[in-house]
Amino acid sequence: MTEIDRSRAFAKDVKRIVVKVGTAVVTGKGGRLALGRLGAICEQLAELNSDGFEVILVSSGAVGLGRQRLRYRQLVNSSFADLQKPQMELDGKACAGVGQSSLMAYYETMFDQLDVTVAQMLVTDSSFRDKDFRKQLSETVKAMLRMRVIPVFNENDAISTRRAPYKDSTGIFWDNDSLAALLSLELKADLLILLSDVEGLYTGPPSDSTSKLIHTFIKEKHQDEITFGEKSKLGRGGMTAKVKAAVNAAYGGVPVIITSGYAAENISKVLRGLRVGTLFHQDAHLWAPVVDTTSRDMAVAARESSRKLQALSSEDRKQILLDIANALEANEKTIKAENDLDVAAAQEAGYEESLVARLVMKPGKISSLAASVRQLAEMEDPIGRVLKKTQVADDLILEKTSSPIGVLLIVFESRPDALVQIASLAIRSGNGLLLKGGKEARRSNAILHKVITDAIPKTVGGKLIGLVTSREEIPDLLKLDDVIDLVIPRGSNKLVSQIKNSTKIPVLGHADGICHVYVDKSCKLDMAKRIVSDAKLDYPAACNAMETLLVHKDLEQNGFLNDLIYVLQTKGVTLYGGPRASAKLNIPETKSFHHEYSSKACTVEIVEDVYGAIDHIHQHGSAHTDCIVTEDSEVAEIFLRQVDSAAVFHNASTRFSDGFRFGLGAEVGISTSRIHARGPVGVEGLLTTRWIMRGKGQVVDGDNGIVYTHKDLPVLQRTEAVENEI
C-alpha cells in the first residue's frame, strides 16, 4: 500500500484520536516501567494535544507493575525460611490495585512536566451495560477534551466481577485492546492507534524470518492466512486480541493502525500518512491491492521480468525502446502538466533554487529524452556479445560473454528526467530495475513510470521496472542482498553516504561533483572565457558543472584573471576565493574548497603552476571531472596523466562529462568508484560477464587423457541463432 492510499484512509480530518499502549510497551525488564519509551510516547501525545488534536489514552501495565511491586514487598517481608518454601501466586486483582496508582502517578508526573493535565478513568465491563453510564461517560470525556485534558483509561481489574479478569475474554470488552476499540466507537474517534512491541501484524510469528509484515489488513484475504505465535508473557491481550479489536473498530467506521511503541515518532508518522504498521479500514478491500507487495516481492518480480526480457530477440528489445520513445512524445502534455504541479509545490514549500532547477523539465526536454532513447535503441545489442573466445582443448570451446548484472536499485533526487534515462538503460542492458525518486518529483515520476511501463509488452511485464513510493521502504530494500545486485544512488553526499553505510549490496556512484577548471598561463584568452563560462553556467545545478576555478599565478600579474572574473560576475556568478585569490580580488574567502554549490556560485584560487593545480585537485576534489585550458601540449599531458579523476579534459568544458554526450545513449549516473565502472555509466557499466563452454562429452578425470591448448580464437559476429540461444 502506498502513502497515497494511507491518505485515503484518513480522508476526513483527524481530530479525535484514541491511543492504546500495551503492557509490553509500558513495562521493561522485571516489570518495571520503561521510563524512556513511555516518556517518548507522552511527549508525542503532548505535542498532539498542543496542536489541537483531542487525545484519549488507554493504558495497560497496571497488573504487571503491581505484580513487580508486590513481589518486592513479599521478598522484603519474608524470612530466610519463608524463601525456601514455594512462593504463592499473587492475586491479579491486588496487583491491579497496587499497580494502577503507580502507573497513574507516573503519567501525572510526566504530563505535568509537559504542561498537560490528565484524568484517571477506571471502567469495568459491567458499567457499559448501563445506557446512562455510557451517556455520562461521553459527556464527561467531551468536557475534558474541550479543556485539553487527556483522559487515561484502564479497565478496573481490582474490582472487576470477572473471576479471572486477566484470563476471561467474554463480555462487552475483555481487555484494554477491546476497551480501546469500544471507546473509539463510543466516543466517535477519527483514528485508533494500538501500540505493540512489534511493527504490526505479520503473516506468521514475527520471529520467523519467512513472516512478512502486512501493511494493509484485508479481512477477506488475511483472516484465514495469519498464523499467530505465542502470546506475549506480558499483559493478557496479545496480537490475536489486537487484531480482533482492530477489526471491530475498523468495520464500525474507525480506521485503526497497529504499530510499534518502541520506534521513535511512530504516532506522528501515522498522522503524516506514512506507511508504518498495519492499517485496518472498512474500505481497504476497495483500494488496496489484493496481494500485499513487499520490497522483496518487487525485487523478485523485477528479476523474473528481466529474464523474460533477455529471452527476447535483439529486434524485440530494440522495439520496446522505440515504443517508449514514441509514448513519451505522445504524452508530452500530460507529463509537463504533472511536472508543473511538482515545480509549483516545491516553490511553495521553499525548496532551494538549485533543487527546483533540477526538478524543472524545460521545453524540449521530452523530445531530447525520446531522442536519447532512440539512440540507445539503435546501438549494437550489448547482451550476449562474445568478448573472448578460447579453445581450451580439442572440441572444447570457452566464450566470455556480456551479461546483465541482474536487478538494480537506483535512488535519485529531484531530476525526473533521470527516471527515463535509467529505465531505458536498464531495458537496453536487460536488467530489472527498482526506482526511488525524490518526493518533490512524485507526480512527475509517477506519470513517467506509467508511460514507460505501459509501453512494455505483456510478455515481459511492467514489473520489470518497479517504482518505490515510500521512503520507509528503502531500509527494507537495502537488506535484500540476495535479490538486488547493485545500488546506484544519485544525489547528495548525505544520501550516498547513508546508503553506503546501510547495505551489503555493492554501491556504484559518486557523493560530490567538485569539478575544477585549471587555466594555465599558456591558454588562449577567448577559449578560456568560453570554457569557464560554459562549465559554470550551462547548467549550474549539474554534477559536472565547474565548482572551482584554478588560475596560474602569471595570469593574475598580466591582468587576465580580472578578465575571467569579470565574465563570471557580469553573468551573475557569486565568487568566493581561496586565501590567495580572496586577498588579490577582494572577494569573500570560502569556508571550504570541498563545496558543491550547484548554483551560480564558485570558488576561485591562484596556484603556482600545473603541479600546484594537480595537488589542489587531489586534496580538495571529488575525482569526478577536471579540465585544463592550455596551448602547451606538454603541460596538458602532465595534467591528463596525473589527475586521478574519472574524467580529465584538455580544452573542453566539464559539461561534456555526460553519458549522452559521450555517445553512450544515456547514463545511469557518474561513478567515481575505481571498481567495475568509472565516469559516466552507460549500458556497458550495467553489464557483467559470464562463461559459456561448449564441448563434446569431455570430462576432467584428474586431467588424464586431455591436452589443454588454451588457444585464442577469433571472435566472430554473433548470429541470430546464437543470440536467441543465449
Query: Which stretches of 5+ consecutive residues score pLDDT under 50?
Result: 1-5, 164-169, 231-237, 720-726
Distance between the termini: 37 Å
By DSSP, the count of extended strands is 24
Task: Give the helix/strand class.
Answer: alpha/beta
The main β sheet shows up as: 8 strands, mixed
The dominant shape is globular
Walk me through the structure:
With 726 residues, the chain is α/β, with parallel strands linked by helices. Helix content is 41%, strand content 18%. An eight-stranded mixed β-sheet has the order 3-4-2-1-5-7-8-6, with helices on both faces. A six-stranded parallel β-sheet has the order 17-18-16-15-19-20, sandwiched between helices. Helix 8 (176-186) runs parallel beside helix 10 and helix 17 packs parallel to helix 18. It is globular, with a radius of gyration of 33 Å. The model is unreliable at 1-5, 164-169, 231-237 and 720-726 (pLDDT under 50).
Give a brief rundown of this model.
With 726 residues, the chain is of the alpha/beta class.
List key phrases describing it.
six-stranded parallel sheet; alpha/beta; disordered C terminus; 41% helix; 726 residues; eight-stranded mixed sheet; disordered N terminus; 28 helices
Topology:
Blueprint: H1 3-9, E1 16-21, H2 23-26, H3 35-50, E2 54-59, H4 62-76, H5 80-84, H6 92-113, E3 118-123, H7 131-146, E4 150-155, H8 176-186, E5 191-196, E6 216-217, H9 219-222, H10 238-250, E7 256-260, H11 266-271, E8 278-280, H12 284-287, H13 295-311, H14 314-330, H15 332-348, H16 353-359, H17 365-378, E9 386-393, E10 396-404, E11 407-412, H18 417-429, E12 432-436, H19 442-454, E13 465-467, H20 474-478, E14 486-490, H21 493-500, E15 515-519, H22 525-537, E16 546-552, H23 553-557, H24 560-570, E17 574-577, H25 579-585, E18 601-607, H26 610-620, E19 625-629, H27 633-642, E20 647-650, E21 669-671, E22 679-681, E23 687-694, E24 708-713, H28 720-725
